[in-house]
Amino acid sequence: MKSENFETIAIRTQTERSLHKEHSSPIYLTSSYKFEDAEEMRALFANEKEGNVYSRYSNPNTSEFIEKMCLLEGAEDGFATATGMAAIFTTFGAFLKNGDHLVSSRSVFGSTHQLLTNVFSNWGVTFDYADLDKPQDWEALIKPNTKMIFVETPSNPGIDIIDLEFLGNLAKKHNVLLVVDNCFATPYLQQPIKYGAHISIHSATKYIDGQGRVLGGVILGAKGLIADVIAFARHSGPALSPFNAWILSKSLETLAIRMDRHCENALKVAEYLEKHPKVKLVKYPFLPSHPQYDIAKKQMKQGGGIVTIVVEGGIDAARKFMDGLEMFSISANLADTRSIATHPATSTHSKLTEEQRNEVGIEQGSIRLSIGLEHINDILADIEQALA
């Protein structure tokens, strides 16, 4: 039965059943595959025939995961990687070469910043940062050698947002690739390709898994572009393991219902904290006070599960709040069933200078709250007593 509904696609898309007629897809823990004869082996290696050659290239579990993600995101093809950062590195590596230029949102994950400043800069790739809240500045940064626009929206941890339709039109006008890190939104809340993005990237470690179990990443886009990604990835080797692919594919079956609860809880937390006297700033896409609230409502189904706050009193107050939490976990991860608190300035974004952190709104009092699936009364009670 064909369906256009997210939940049905996520649950009912799976690999072809074997002779055992299993209801749930099995795990294909194999590194390699048998060929019927020498001619089939030749044809597969020559790309004249589709099929599995080696699990660094493809595996039934990774293929199922990719197929689901393509259907949910509106992409033609994809490649699954061992981590989210492997997905970003592989995308950069596949399309950027010595002499190329990239325009990136200033507010990016700390490791992405490290790739741009300490890895690709050494390989002759230059870049300029632009602010998500200043779209009028983006076009002026595009140069004749600009190859790519890269953006996180919503951003980590500032929860800044930019109009994807605007960026899609800008990329089309200047014939550059638009790559969107869609990790915080997931395909359930946002589909960047619909707005003109060429590639959408996920750290599947986050909401795709959603339970803090496995690492993974995925790169999604047009078939021709993904062919370039695969050509790079086959030899650089960032492949996702079959076991992790199996976990992630099964996790997609509950993504919609999990995201509904994450979003419901996060909005209530944001509304509560916005009125709290010890909190000087709350950032959440579906709060009317968010600077890009109208854009968020246009391109996102709901606001996501991340709330970023700035507590009064700087780092001492931030530490006091985090140490006072009883149910929340203190962790660098996010998007778990369990609520998590992170201090970005001393963890995920600690390698940025203080000036760089200030430029993207990361203060010493900034705390990223990943709102989990616990009962909302318990989440609010823990926050309330920690702020007391």
TrEMBL record:
GO terms for biological process: 'de novo' L-methionine biosynthetic process; homocysteine biosynthetic process; transsulfuration. Its cofactor is pyridoxal 5'-phosphate. GO terms for cellular component: cytoplasm. The keyword Amino-acid biosynthesis applies. InterPro entries: Cys/Met-Metab_PyrdxlP-dep_enz, O-succ-hSer_sulfhydrylase, PyrdxlP-dep_Trfase, PyrdxlP-dep_Trfase_major, PyrdxlP-dep_Trfase_small. It is an enzyme of class 2 (transferase). Its EC number is 2.5.1.-. One of its GO terms (molecular function) is transaminase activity. The modification N6-(pyridoxal phosphate)lysine is found at K206. It comes from the Bacteria. Catalyzes the formation of L-homocysteine from O-succinyl-L-homoserine (OSHS) and hydrogen sulfide. This is O-succinylhomoserine sulfhydrylase. It comes from Pedobacter kyonggii. The lineage of its organism: Bacteria, Pseudomonadati, Bacteroidota, Sphingobacteriia, Sphingobacteriales. The gene is metZ.
